[in-house]
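$ fold --in a.seq
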Amino acid sequence: MDQVAGGGPRPPAVTVMAGNADVPDAVAPPPGHPRFPLMDALRALASLSIVVVHAAFLSGLFFGRTSVRGLVAHLDFGVTLFFLLSGYLLYRPFLAARILGAPRTRVRDYARRRFLRIAPAYWLALTVLAIVPGIYGVFSSNWWVYYGLLQNWPLYTKTGGCAVDQFRCGISPTWTLSIEVLFYAALPFYAIAMANLARRLRRVPWLALEGAALVTLAVYSVLIQGLKVHYSPYLFFSPLGRGWWFALGMGLAALSVWAEQRGRTPEPLRTMASHPGLLYVVAAALYVVPALAILPPSPLGAFPAGSMSDYVGEYVLFGVIALLLVLPAVFGTDITVGWPRRLLSHPVLSWLGLISYGVFLWHYPIILGLRDLGVPGWIPSAEFPVLLVATLALTIPCAALSYYLVERPIMRRKRALPAAVPTRPAGLAAG
């Protein structure tokens, strides 16, 4: 069994150490840190769920009154999964460097990695899609808003087509990407603040400090969501506004590092990890029952057709469901144990996870273009499945080209970064 720095056995975790030549550059963790390969498939599931919900919305399925409407309309849950994965994968290296003495990545290198991962592929998609099938705003005087991912906030006045059709203004789903980028920017400062707090409060266990901070973040985010109409969009469209989802991922990262520091996984986590199928069944039940009970979002997407309590309840519940789906990808050594791990290790899902960023970027304008061509109308009785299949048939090749021609070559520049700097000799841990 593998050994950790402190001498104990490594806890169950589906990991691959960075530096493995087989690890794709786009998903490689910082040098000296473990990779969690089952996360790739979770990215695929998140991106595909977003494609499904947008195809359903733009095909008119939301206007029906069937159980299918409720089940499909809440698949924007994929955004929750993306945010939780970001919280886990990006915060864990900061914690591991401080607590376990793992290699430390300099902030400028971290910023460079994040920029290379996000900006080039986004700028390419934005420019191409503004030409074909055509989206508004990109070639206007407000071009800087869209290239700068600033469209969430009232920094400008919408003109031209953007003033008429908000859904065709830039790449509409990237409102979530702007929140992600702000989270990337804020995370190093949060990590530095937590490290300083831990030094000042040495007698308080570091995990307790992390938990208190993350609970505070989560509570504030729920308040922001619940008082949406009274808050500025600067808060609502911020990492704090979605802090419950990010906090769950960051909390899972803290538990993972704590388990490695102790040399063993706590019994509750080990029990859950050994029954991944049960976790997924519970997650499915938590999704299906409220999806059938809570009305889907309104056609404008601003609020669900139900009450504000439904909206906040869905926000909280989505985080719990995402946590249940991610747990088997973090804890547990054998990918053959349980059908969820076998599913997440499937090569097709793993590959779709590699190109998932492109799927997210390209799919929505492609749906708009297909609607312009009247594609769903060819088979009126099956508008939703026709639009969905046609969207995937065009989106996946575009995403693959983006990955192989742009994302992968650019992300190889991560290898040119200076070697990570250890925070302390191996075997010494803070907290």
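$ fold --in b.seq
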Amino acid sequence: MTTAVATRPKMRVFPGSPDQVRQARNFVARVLAGFPAADDALLLASELVTNAIMHTASGAGGTFTITASRYGNRAWIAVRDGGGDKAPVIRPVSRDRESGFGLGLVDKLADRWGYDGDERGRVVWFEVSA
């Protein structure tokens, strides 16, 4: 008989500065220790954190919050930011740009993802399975 590995959701607040991307990855890695698809989850979490810092009020002296949990063969990650005037969008791939593909990765690798919020605050989340 196998038992499902589950973690209660863990949450942590980070300063909205670029040097915190690594710290956020380390936090998610600890929560997802032993999860077979942890590498994908860490990549996607890094993308969402980078977006929060680059495109929302979080990166202008604010903070962002990560919530991470695991149940069986699924991991769920959410990044709450300080909000921004533009909703998250998937940009088409273009050879003319070197960045802007983060949500495209989320869309391709996550089983599900979404967002809610506005200029006062937004949460972007994804779920991956092993």
